[in-house]
Amino acid sequence: MFYHLILTDECNLCCTYCRGKAFEALAGGETDVAIDTSLSPDFACDLGDLYRFLERDPEPCVTFYGGEPLMRMDLIRKIMDTAPVQRFMIQTNGILLDRLGSDYVNRMETILVSLDGPPEVTDAHRGRGTFDGVIRNIREIIAGGYQGELIARMTVTEGTDIRDAVRYLASNDQYSFDSLHWQIDADFSGDSSMRKFSRWLTTSYLPGIRALIGDWVGIMEAEGRVARWYPFLQTTIDLLQDRPSRLRCGCGHANYTIMTDGHIAPCPVMIGMKNSYVGHIRTADPWNLPVLDMTGSCRRCDILGFCGGRCLYADITRPWPPEEKAVICSSVRDLRDGLSSVLPEIRRLLGSGKIRREDFSHTRYNGCEIIP
Ligand code: SF4
Ligand code: SF4
Ligand code: SF4
Fold it and tell me: Residue ranges per domain, the chain?
C-alpha cells in the first residue's frame, strides 16, 4: 500500500494556486465539508503508533508530503533511519533538496519535484528564481549519486502553453526530465473565470495535448523509447490492453494519507476533512482500510473505465455545477480520443520491435494523479 505522510503544513514558497485557494473555493461549493480546525499543522503522531501500523503492511511505501516536507528534514531522516519501511518517495518543491544529504536522497525511489514549465512560467507561479534554484539542486543530487526516478510535476493553468511547457522540461540544456506529470488547476469559481478557463481549454490546452500526443509517438518512432509522460503512459497501456482502471491516483483504494494527528484520509488534499477519514493508525489495519468508490455522476459515465473518476476529492466536495464539471470532463474525453487515435501506430511500433511493452512499465500510485 502507498501512504502519503503529512509532515507539516509549513512551506517556504507561496504559489499562486496553493491549497488555501482550494479551501476558499469550498465555501461556495455544493456540499458542506466539515474541517477539523484543531488539526496540528505539524506532525504530532507517536512514531511507535506509526511504525506498528506500517509493520502490519508487508510492503508499505511512504511518500513524504506537506506543505513542504523538507521543512521537516529532521523527521524525514529519523523516519528513514528507524521506520520498518524499505520504499520511500517524496513530493517536494525542490528548494531544499540539496540539504537532505545523499544518504537519504539516494534511498528515495521516486522524487516528484514541482516545476510548471520553462523558467518564466515556473517563476510566475512559484516565485522569482525558483526554476534555476530547483534545477541547481537537481543537478547536485544527481552529482551525489541519485539514480531513482525524478518526476517533474507540473500545475497547468490558463496561460500555460502545455505543449511548450512539456517540451521544454523534456528537453533543454539545463536538465531534461524523462518523467513528467501535469495536473490542471481546475479551481475556478464564478462564471467569468470559468469562461476564461473554458476558452483556454478549448483554444490552447486541448489542441496542445493533441500535438503532444503526436510528439510522444514521434519520440517512439525516432528514438525507440517511450517517454514517461504519465498522463499518456498509464492510460495508453491500459487502452492497449483494454483494461479499465479504478481511480488512477489510487486514493481510497491503493493510496491513503496519514494526517499529522494519525488519522487516515483517502487523499493528501483532504487535510482536516474529518468526515472522510477512514481510520486512525492506532487502530486501523492496513489491509482492511475502507475502499471508496465514486458516488456522483461518474458512476454513469461511459468513459469511467478510462478516466477512473479523475478525483475523489472533487467527487466528495463537488466544487463545480454540472456545466463546469462538463468542461473538465471534456478534457478527459479528448485525452481518451487523442490517445485512441494513435493506438494503431503504437501497435505497429510494438509489432516491429521498435518499442516494447515493458517500456510502458511504471509504478502505479506513485503520487502522479494521471488524469490531468
Ligand atoms: S510549494 Fe506546494 S505547498 Fe508550497 S505553496 Fe507551493 S503548492 Fe503550496
Ligand atoms: S470523465 Fe468526468 S464524469 Fe466521466 S468518469 Fe471522468 S470525471 Fe467522471
Ligand atoms: S486526483 Fe483528487 S483524489 Fe487523487 S490525489 Fe489528487 S486531489 Fe486527491
Answer: 2-360
Superfamily of domain 2-360 in CATH is Aldolase class I (3.20.20.70)
Look at the alpha carbons of 32, 186, 135, 227 in this order and tell me if their dihedral is positive or negative: positive
Mutation test residue for ligand 2: of 201, 329, 330, 339, the one with most atoms within 8 Å of CB: 329
Ligand 1 pocket residue status of 96, Cβ below 6 Å: no
**In what order do the strands lie in the sheet containing 61-65?**
228-229, 179-184, 149-156, 108-114, 87-92, 61-65, 2-6, 255-258, 263-265, 279-280
Dihedral angle at the C-alpha atoms of 326, 122, 249, 277, nearest 10 degrees? Answer: -90
State pLDDT tens for residues 202-253: 999 999 999 999 999 999 999 999 999 999 999 999 999 999 999 999 999 9
- Ligand nearest the Cα of residue 307 is 2
Buried/exposed 292-309: b ≥16 CB within 10 Å, e otherwise: bebeeebeebeebebbbb
pLDDT of residue 18: 79
